[in-house]
């Protein structure tokens, strides 16, 4: 049985360069039981495990190939259901991102609503790397327009701390 968890989805969706599609299927980022949810056959499950092991630890560009091979295993109905579930999850991640920013930056109800509307409007599934890059750019633009000077300073501090954590993680690997 293949069990999926997106425990780091908020972080992955807002900061990672990899497509959320690849992250949604990839080992440590799983949350859904794809085999049961999509009613996968034993053969499909075996093939999915083979594909995952083949792509374990690959670079971000290659993950798009991983995602495509995984999708190719599914029937049309399974693909439609998987896309629907992933779209819902992606929307939930966008909502969590807004809540996270609200908590960290003490956003006003008006700021929350404007950011939520902008984030949910930009949700499309599955996004390409270029679309994810554009979504990050739009988030930065939205925050620049919405935040007060004090909030903007807090946002920059959060980004700096995040960049430092990334560097620490890279140096460990």
Question: Can you put this structure into words, describing what you see?
Answer:
It contains nine helices and no strands. The protein is an all-alpha fold and 173 residues long. The longest helix has 30 residues, at 76-105. The chain has helices spanning 9-15, 20-25, 34-37, 42-55, 60-73, 76-105, 109-121, 129-146, 149-172. It has one domain. α4 runs antiparallel to α5 and α6 (76-105) packs antiparallel against α7. It is 75% helix and 0% strand. Residues 1-29 have low confidence and may be disordered.
Low-confidence stretches are 1-29
Outline the biggest β-sheet.
Answer: none
**Count of domains:** 1
Arithmetic mean pLDDT = 76
Number of strands: 0
Helix content: over 70%
Q: How would you sum up the global shape?
A: globular
Number of helices: 9
- Beta fraction of the residues? under 5%
Distance between the termini: 30 Å
Structural class: mainly alpha
Helix-strand sequence: HHHHHHHHH
What is the radius of gyration computed over CA atoms, rounded to a whole number of angstroms? 18 Å
Annotation keywords:
coiled coil, signal, 9 helices, disordered N terminus, 173 residues, mainly alpha
Compact overview of the structure:
This protein is an all-alpha fold and 173 residues long. It has nine helices and no strands.
Strand-helix topology:
Layout: H1 9-15, H2 20-25, H3 34-37, H4 42-55, H5 60-73, H6 76-105, H7 109-121, H8 129-146, H9 149-172
Coiled coil: 129-156
Signal peptide: 1-24
Organism: Bacterioplanes sanyensis
